[in-house]
Amino acid sequence: MPEYKLVNFDCKGRAEMTRMIFAAAGVKYEDCRLARQKYEELKASGKLPFGQLPVLEVDGEILPQSMVWFAPTESFEVAKADVIAESLGHLFDKAIDWHFEENEETKQKLYKELFEKSIPRTLENLDKILKSCDGKYFVGNKLTYADIIFFSVLKIIQEFKENDELNDGSILLDKHMALKELYSTVSNNPGINKWLSERPLTKY
């Protein structure tokens, strides 16, 4: 059995998607969380692809984060899952830009763009994809990394929103019952549910 080591800062971020995939798969791994100084040392060593975190080590070899677990088996389904994951990745990047923006005027503009345009547009598209299948999973008839990434990204954005002074109290998925059901399905996965109850508390 390979030895896995997920390296990131002490936060959720993009690494949380991989942590949830590990949790759902029941795969043991080392959850390595670096302080800024340790990251700078690792970056200076030249061992980080693109100089960024998170990275996944497999038997000591550094790789991009892996979606090997819960991957669809058919090439078309893999492509479909990748499109969904990429769309959610773009949404996550926009949420990070808004959440960590220090200029208040710019932050308000980013908030409006994210919650009035980007999120509604993305959820509408995802809702159509989900309903075009059997309405339970994005791809095929079982859980894939597309579903887990969807859950992880939406959960983090909702947490960001609830802690922001501009929060209007709304729930992101209230208008999309099929997506809300999928969110609940992933949340109730035994491995993910256990991870959520035991994971370290972090500010973001």
UniProtKB/TrEMBL annotation:
Protein's GO biological process: glutathione metabolic process
UniProt-listed Pfam families: GST_C_3, GST_N
EC numbers: 2.5.1.18
Alphabetized InterPro entries for the sequence: Glutathione-S-Trfase_C-like, Glutathione-S-Trfase_C_sf, Glutathione_S-Trfase, Glutathione_S-Trfase_N, GST_C, GST_superfamily, Thioredoxin-like_sf
GO MF term list: glutathione transferase activity
Broad enzyme group: transferase
Catalytic activity: RX + glutathione = an S-substituted glutathione + a halide anion + H(+)
Record keywords: Transferase
Name by which UniProt lists this protein: glutathione transferase
Species annotation: Paramuricea clavata
